[in-house]
Amino acid sequence: MSFDQYAQQWDTEKRIHRAKIIADKMRTTFDRAFYNRGMEFGCGTGLISFNLADLFKESFLIDTSEGMIGILKDKRQTYGTNHLIPIKADILEQEDLIHDNIDIVYSSMVLHHVDNTKDIMTRFYKLLKEKGELCIVDIDLEDGRFHSAYPEFEGHNGFDHKELICIAESVGFKNIEITSFYNDVKVIRGENVDYSLFIMHAYKE
What is the pTM of this model? Predict the structure, then answer.
């Protein structure tokens, strides 16, 4: 999917509302009340990180979409959140971009867009400090209707909890907890499609 095409219309009232719920859930799941260095993978226009901005001395907001990063930079200037640092990058291809001293990696509604889940999990693991945390919010396994309006979508139709835990464990993550916490309805071509989100929290040891 080309998120540059959607960037200008991304911050809908529904997405803003959902991002606040997700960020609040992340906040209660994080192990600490403050982090020196965070990283949001697939930040989009920064809806999650702006809700968590007070938790970080600095946080790197990573996205491959130039359009999304452009909007994020405008927001950063407007709100004076200079400690949120937008970076247009593919962290799987640009491995020297950020060094491995991140306290927490967090991501919302992005993992299902990544083709190789194990590769990105491995990258997260390498980026984190010892005792660092990983927090991911994404879609529970569904029947494919969630992205049925986007014929170009080539990602995952959500995730099975056990399978995702196995992948995380295989790259070294420990103390993995995962639970569904949010239910909603997405209207697609006039059809109401139910979906739910999970939150996964894990540690590098």
Answer: 0.91
Counting Cβ atoms within 10 Å, is residue 190 exposed (0-12), middle (13-18) or buried (19+)? exposed
Rounded to whole angstroms, the Cα distance separating 134 from 26 reads 10
Rounded CA separation 194/84 (Å): 33
CATH number at residue 193: 3.40.50.150
Number of domains in the chain: 1
Sheet strands side by side (includes 84-88): 84-88, 56-63, 35-41, 102-108, 128-139, 191-204, 173-188
Question: Distance between CA atoms of 39 and 86, rounded to whole angstroms?
Answer: 10
The proportion of the chain whose per-residue pLDDT surpasses 90, expressed as a percent, equals 73
Q: Which tens digits make up the pLDDT trace of 126-139?
A: 999 999 999 999 99
Tokens of 16: 């803003």
Cβ atoms of 112 and 159 closer than 8 Å: yes
